């Protein structure tokens, strides 16, 4: 590639070298005069050596400076490319000498920047696609109501308004979950931790979902005496249990069962949430933690496809892990393992 940056200067290297040569010759001459009785002829010879040494030094340093300049120009070219948006630019490290580690660091930086940009582009495309569906539905039903006027029956009007309401709530949930996931992805550590009982928090989340549970007559199987001491952030951990339990309720048929089991381990705590729902195949399990992924053949109202991404990110932030075990028609079990303080 043609170089775009030219490194100038380095004249100071020559100047310093000449000064050192002059000082060395004069210093040696002074010592020779004091201790070796140099005469005027010897002094003149030494003075004549100064330009010879300066030229020799300049000739010797020229290839060294050329090599340093070339390596610096490679780095400058890379910075130029990155500043102009070419995040795929990489510096060849072969023959880089002492600059090899510097080039590697630069390449790692551009690789991470490219990865971040790709993730942002994918997020923007997915975000726009997911938002388009409810907005289109709301706009379409609103247009029908306006154009049809009094020709619609009360039942039809009520149905269209119900659709608008449901899609509005879906859009609201999608916005809130997207903002939450964006915030979580920007977090590197969890702050505002405290000691509390995870089991009690899960019971509270079951109360929040009480209407949905009662509507489908789902049985909840959880030990009332279960205690799971944990040190963490209650606010973000609540999102884990709400999303997992909400999914269990959503995919469990009427008169089904949801079992919540927990225990203290040597490494921390473990929670398992099992439902008697439709289950998943291996292909689905590989993708369920991906943003906006949905495989929902049973619900009329689709979710946002972000809930399990939020769960995964929170568990990872807390230093834990989440696993899923499922088979089609046999329900699903999500296991969350969290470390000690």
Describe this structure in words.
With 341 residues, this protein is of the alpha+beta class. The protein has three domains: 76 residues, no CATH class; 65 residues, Orthogonal Bundle (Helix Hairpins); 146 residues, Histidine kinase-like ATPase, C-terminal domain (Heat Shock Protein 90, 2-Layer Sandwich). About 1% of the residues have low confidence. A hairpin with a 3-residue loop joins strand 4 and strand 5. The protein is built from nine helices and seven strands, in the order H-H-H-H-E-H-H-E-E-H-E-E-H-H-E-E.
The percentage of residues in β strands lies in 5-15%
Instruction: Determine the fraction of residues in helical runs and give it as a percent range.
Output: 55-70%
CATH superfamily of the largest domain: Histidine kinase-like ATPase, C-terminal domain
- Discrete helix count: 9
CATH architectural grouping of the largest domain: 2-Layer Sandwich
- From the alpha-carbon coordinates, what is the Rg to the nearest angstrom? 35 Å
CATH class of the largest domain: Alpha Beta
Number of domains: 3
**Straight-line distance between termini:** 53 Å
* Major β-sheet strand ordering: 2-4-5-7-6
Give the overall shape. elongated
